[in-house]
């Protein structure tokens, strides 16, 4: 599948390139937080997005992480709106030193589905952040990912929290990055039903072919899916706690979180808002927040009701059937190799307290 897709997809890469804007190195902030030497180098690939924004704030306020880049993928909002939002977030946090780059303009093989219902018309809960002081990096997001991985071999953790289009494009262009990546921690997928429909989670549904490429690349991949995200409900009590603190970032986070709690009460299950993308960042900060099980996971791309579903084999075996006359006979049981560490449990309140403390930190 990977080889078959390559030619077509590489053709699409040219179409997918974001309009370049000149990076202004002089605009790089002198106030940027120097990351401790032992901090984990991460690239966040994001479709900002309300919970993406919270995930970015969490990452940028966590000394365990050294955020090298924000690469933008279309998903919750268009590529253009996503880039504007990412730049505003870098500006809000005084982190113009971080590379913020646009990437793909649309999913590999389908039309983009945006999610203003859940994220607000501008993707940031309709909060009007000031224009960004930061400038976009002129590099194409997937190229930036490739370059940074080669510059820091075995050190970069990728944290994709949107559709996997940019990561798949990077893989298709340069498969040699696979052994050079430290690990990949994605928000996406589910082994117990979807949020878009009965079977699919939004990030995977928005680009199933890209997800299948990323899931089968052969690198260490942790799937922080809906199953655990749905247990991290940020509720009014958490919001009241955060609301006691103030600052430009805190105040923005409070507005976003109250929007999310409201939307969840209106359209969701209520009881608080799941912190999907922040949990993926939380897992990169402290992997002990989640428990995982290795599983073989494939992404369904053809099912009428199941396109975008992450299909997980929980027992690592498949029956081998062979045609004997007019019927198949089970001739044996074959082993399948796990390709994903699937999160199956989460210390939800521990994580939510970590999130609140980091959002309140400054
Ligand atoms: C995922 O979809 C998006 O709406 C969120 O930002 C999150 O990444 C949850 O399914
Ligand atoms: Ca997202």
Outline of the structure:
This protein is of the alpha/beta class.
Q: What would you note in describing this structure?
A:
- The protein has 362 residues and is an alpha/beta fold.
- It has one domain (2-359): Alpha-Beta Complex (Inosine-uridine Nucleoside N-ribohydrolase, Chain A).
- 36% of the residues lie in helices and 21% in strands.
- It is built from 13 helices and 13 strands.
- It has a 9-stranded mixed beta sheet with strand order 3-2-1-4-5-6-13-9-10, with helices on both faces.
- The radius of gyration is 20 Å and the shape is globular.
- Residues 1-32 have low confidence and may be disordered.
- The structure holds beta-D-ribofuranose and calcium ion.
- Beta-D-ribofuranose binds at residues 49, 51-52, 76, 115, 118, 161-162, 187, 195, 201-203, 276-277.
- Calcium ion binds at residues 47, 49, 52, 76, 161-162, 277.
Low-confidence stretches: 1-32
The helical percent reads 25-40%
What percentage of amino acids are in beta strands?
A: 15-25%
Bound small molecules, deduplicated: beta-D-ribofuranose, calcium ion
Using the alpha-carbon principal axes, give the shape.
globular
Question: Could you name the CATH homologous superfamily?
Answer: Ribonucleoside hydrolase-like
Number of helices: 13
Number of domains: 1
Order of helices and strands: HEHEHEHHEHEHHEHEHHEHEEEEEH
CATH topology: Inosine-uridine Nucleoside N-ribohydrolase, Chain A
CATH architecture: Alpha-Beta Complex
Q: What is the CA-atom radius of gyration, in angstroms?
A: 20 Å
**Within the largest sheet, what's the order of strands?**
3-2-1-4-5-6-13-9-10
Can you identify the CATH class?
Alpha Beta
Mean pLDDT: 92
């Amino acid at each position: 599948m990977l080889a078959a897709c390559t030619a077509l997809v590489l053709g699409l890469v040219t179409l997918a390139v974001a309009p370049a804007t000149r990076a202004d190195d002089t605009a790089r902030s002198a106030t940027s937080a120097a990351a401790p030497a032992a901090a984990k180098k991460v690239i966040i690939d994001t479709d900002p997005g309300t919970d993406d924004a919270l995930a970015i704030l969490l990452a940028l306020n966590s000394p365990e992480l050294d955020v090298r880049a924000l690469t933008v993928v279309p998903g919750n909002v268009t590529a253009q709106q996503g880039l504007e939002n990412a730049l505003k977030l870098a500006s809000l946090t005084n982190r113009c030193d971080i590379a913020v780059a646009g990437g793909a303009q649309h999913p590999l093989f389908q039309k983009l589905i945006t999610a203003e219902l859940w994220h607000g018309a501008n993707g940031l809960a309709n909060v009007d952040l000031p224009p960004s002081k930061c400038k976009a990096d002129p590099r194409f997001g997937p190229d930036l990912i490739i370059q940074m991985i080669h510059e820091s071999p075995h050190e970069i953790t990728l944290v994709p929290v949107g559709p996997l289009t940019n990561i798949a494009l990077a893989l298709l262009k340069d498969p040699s990055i696979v052994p050079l990546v430290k690990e990949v921690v994605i928000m996406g997928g589910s082994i117990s039903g979807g949020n878009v429909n009965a079977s699919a989670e939004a990030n995977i549904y928005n680009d199933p072919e890209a997800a299948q490429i990323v899931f089968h690349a052969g690198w260490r991949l942790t799937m922080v899916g809906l199953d655990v995200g749905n247990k991290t409900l940020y509720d009014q009590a958490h919001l009241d706690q955060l609301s006691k603190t103030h600052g430009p970032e805190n105040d923005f986070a409070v507005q976003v979180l109250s929007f999310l709690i409201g939307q969840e009460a209106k359209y969701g299950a209520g009881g608080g808002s799941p912190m999907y993308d922040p949990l993926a960042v939380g897992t990169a900060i402290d992997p002990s927040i989640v428990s995982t099980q290795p599983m073989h996971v494939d992404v369904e791309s053809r099912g009428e009701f199941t396109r975008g579903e992450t299909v997980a084999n929980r027992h690592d075996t498949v029956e081998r059937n062979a045609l004997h006359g007019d019927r198949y006979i089970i001739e044996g049981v074959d082993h399948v190799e796990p390709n994903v560490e699937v999160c199956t449990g989460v210390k939800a309140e521990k994580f939510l307290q970590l999130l609140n403390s980091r959002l309140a930190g400054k």
